Amino acid sequence: MLKVRIIPTLLWKSFGLVKGVAFNSWRRVGPVLPTLKVYNARDVDELVLVDIMASQLGDAPDHESVADFSDECSVPLTVGGGITSLPQIVGLLRAGADKISMNSAIFARPELIDEAAAQFGTQCVVASVDARRHDDGAYSVYSHCGTRDTGRDPAIWARELALRGAGEILLTSIDRDGTMQGYDLNLVERVAQAVRIPVIASGGASSYQDMVQVVKQAGASAVAAASIFHFTEQTPAGAKHALHAAGIPVRMNFVAV
Fold first, then answer.
1. Is 51 a domain residue?
2. What are the E-state strand segments in the chain?
3. What pLDDT was estimated at residue 14?
4. What phi and psi, each to the nearest 5 degrees, are found at residue 6?
5. Within 13 Å and on the Cβ side, how many CA atoms surround 220?
6. CATH no. for residue 210?
7. Does the first or last residue of the chain, that is N or C, have fewer Cβ atoms within 10 Å of its Cβ?
8. Its pTM surpasses 0.90
9. What stretches of 47-206 adopt beta strand conformation (E)?
10. Total tally of structural domains belonging to the chain
């Protein structure tokens, strides 16, 4: 089993970082740069930074800001939001991003995944899949920050993205996002069983035990979280201790909780 990664998710809205519930009711967290500096010292394996408004507003990625952020980031940085073309990806990589995450644009042009993987390598391409559970138990994938129902099944969509060259799936439960009610284990398991690439579980973490469960029971390869780190005393290092104690391999570069 590969070592499981702990990945804080930073949602960036023009004025700074925010966190909402179910992709709504955004609450300001603070400025980006100080938060990056804090996480640099907290034994995280990677960071995900997403401009949550870019796709809705039709804005291009802010390469200049990403360059400023990457200068303060000492761990691998995945950047998403507003990416629609290869030149934009080139700009983000030159600005310091290690990986790029795509969501909305690949519904209109899924071959962008193929092109990006061919030019930059699959290890650089993260496909973001945001899903919501309906009353009948079926799941549907949403685009544009959870505002548009694409009608696609998340497991089938994730399989297509993997076949096109995505190196990872960042899977977020919209229903669980920001609720701190635990990951949607059924959703994660369905997608993890459908693909042979790592699935990063996101949406709902409230405790270290939630992280243990989504890895052991649902097959996640990494755990992403935001509220648990922003609004509680729980830390990435503490998460690593808990995963290690549960027999899950993690990068052992931590000392204190």
1. yes
2. 5-13, 16-21, 24-30, 47-51, 77-80, 99-102, 125-133, 139-143, 148-149, 168-173, 199-202, 222-225
3. 66
4. -105, 120
5. 28
6. 3.20.20.70
7. N
8. yes
9. 47-51, 77-80, 99-102, 125-133, 139-143, 148-149, 168-173, 199-202
10. 1
